[in-house]
Design goal:
The chain has about 170 residues and is α+β, with helices and mostly antiparallel strands. The chain is about 30% helix and about 25% strand. It has a six-stranded antiparallel sheet with strand order 3-2-1-6-5-4. The longest helix has 16 residues, at about 150-165. The termini are far apart.
Length: about 170
């Protein structure tokens, strides 16, 4: 039997040019390690008991991790970004219980190789006009069947939006 891994980079969201302008206007790509945002990410990692949490900003060709815990890279290619999928539905969280069994992510290098992503939950981060800038996410190397605290993650995401928008 042949085993085929699938990996589908996210499509570009509607109005990508306007979304990219919103990213640039936000200034978050130029700000380094904001302590208020870092506290929110640390809180999310603790709340969900996950090794990785981050606030990602989806730029033209990359995912910029504005603040992060448990992940050493500051950026990854947009093509392998889970958060690039999250921004496609700005009003909804993206929940991936086990990335190995999700057609979009099974062949993703971040699933096959370290950090061996299994579980992902991301809340899109919106600017004041409603354009998705990126996502507030928590990640685990173990699959998770359900997440009872997505409401708490969305509250942290709303606070992150306020901090980014100031």
């Amino acid at each position: 039997m042949i085993h085929i891994n699938f990996h589908s980079p996210a499509e570009l969201p509607p109005q990508e040019d306007l979304r990219q302008q919103a990213v640039e206007r936000s200034g978050v790509l130029r700000r380094g390690g904001d302590p208020a945002l870092q506290r929110l990410v640390d809180q999310a990692a603790e709340l969900f008991c996950v090794p990785i949490a981050a606030i990602s900003i989806i730029d033209r060709d990359r995912q910029f991790l504005a603040v992060r815990k448990g992940y050493h890279q500051e950026e990854t290619p947009r093509a392998i970004s889970f958060c690039a999928h999250a921004i496609l539905r700005p009003g909804e969280p993206l929940l991936v219980p086990d990335a190995r069994h999700d057609r979009r992510f099974a062949g993703n290098p971040q699933v096959i190789f370290p950090p061996h992503i299994r579980f992902y939950a991301g809340i899109p981060l919106l600017d004041r006009q409603g354009y998705p800038l990126g996502a507030f996410c928590v990640v685990d190397s173990k699959p998770r069947a359900d997440v009872s605290d997505l409401f708490e993650l969305s509250l942290l995401a709303r606070e992150a939006e306020r901090q980014i928008g100031r």
